[in-house]
Each structure stands twice: as C-alpha cells, then as structure tokens.
Predict the structure.
Amino acid sequence: MFGDERERDTGKNYDLVHSVIIDARNRIQVSGVEEVESFDENNVIIFTSAGMLTVSGEELHIDKLNIEDGELAVEGRIDALEYTDDNPSRGSFWSRIFG
C-alpha cells in the first residue's frame, strides 16, 4: 500500500517515515504508525513516528493495520486530524494519564 516506508538512519536502525494520505474525506492512510492507542466510531488515536495523531470523524473503522510495517488505513467520514506533540513520552497508559 505505501511502498518502502523505511529510510536507513544508521547501519542497522530504521526509522518509520510518517505520511498521511486522505482520499475524499472517506479514507485515510497513515504510515509511520507505532501503536494504536484507542479507537471508536468517532476517534482513532495513533502513536506515530511524528507524535500522537488523533483522527476524528463519524462511523470510523480500521480497514487495515500492520504495526510491523507501520501502516494503518481508516475508513469513514474524516472531520479532523490533530497532532498533540512531536515526541510522545511512551510510558504506560496510567503514567500518560496521571504523569
């Protein structure tokens, strides 16, 4: 779907390249996905290599998820995208809530 999304950083390390493609507000493809924090019909919260991304809309559902390759596709009515930070601290769920 996204082709080769990894760029060589150093000899053995690979960083996921982050990109977002929106098709007619009905489908979004995201690369550089590290983890899906949560999702429901109105929000999908994703940790990406560029920070935490929230996709908001209606009747959202995950069409494709491949964490190993860092790929995610969501379908439904897409109303907004919001990045909340550039370098998310990746502690436990409770430390992110109360930290």
About this structure: Confidence is low (pLDDT under 50) at residues 1-14. The helical segments are 93-98. DSSP finds one helix and eight strands in the chain.
